[in-house]
Specification:
Blueprint (H helix, E strand, L loop, with lengths): L6 E4 L5 H12 L3 E6 L2 H11 L2 E4 L5 H15 L4 E4 L14 H29 L2 E6 L12 H21 L4 E8 L23 H13 L8 E4 L6
Parallel strand pairs: 1-2, 1-4, 2-3, 4-5, 5-6, 6-7
InterPro entries: KR_dom, NAD(P)-bd_dom_sf, SDR_fam
Protein name: SDR family oxidoreductase
Keywords: NADP, Oxidoreductase
Length: about 230
Amino acid sequence: MKIENANILITGGTLGIGRATAELLIAHGANVAITGRDEERTHKAAREIGALPITADVANPEDVKRTYSVFMEEFGRLDVLINNAGIGTHGRLEEVSLEEFRRVYEVNVFGAAMMGAQAAEIFKRQNYGNIINIGSSAAVNGYEGGTVYASSKFALRGMTQCWLRELRKYNVRVMLINPSEVTTAFGRSDRQEREEQPNKLRGEEIARAIKGALELDDRGFIPELGVWATNPF
């Protein structure tokens, strides 16, 4: 697809991978809306990069409906949904709680599913569209302390494969991007970006991978793409 003039919705677009992706796509001519739960942060980020701000929580069904209402009123057409919003937690098996599962799954799984369902309705009518789900290397490889987070990304990977098979006949490409560790604010309670490290990935690397996957001619697509740091040790 052509990035220029494409209408793109990115959840969790105020920081990290979401913001880097929005910034890169806008620089190449796309019309981009970003969502975020914090109104002040969302509007500030949108002003700085030239995006449309939508204050919304993907875990809230009413916010999901309003997100699409605002987006379609502004742009009239949706070309790409990037399901980037995500949260995480770390803890050994005996430490995990039902509340932690619910909190993480409401965003990483249920929220992504609700966003995807609304996009699917639009894409079926258009007979065209693209969905990119931001997974993780944890979506294919569990790790010690990752019971809640890794399982949520395994679930997202499974949903991606289901959507892919449901939507191909409508000319909809569904793709999963699995980054390994990225120096973002992910997992930090203060929501401050971590400092860059020369041996770690940045949001920019994932943004370029997303852009490259989208730019593949519409006759083909990359179902799943892993992005690893070359030498993180």
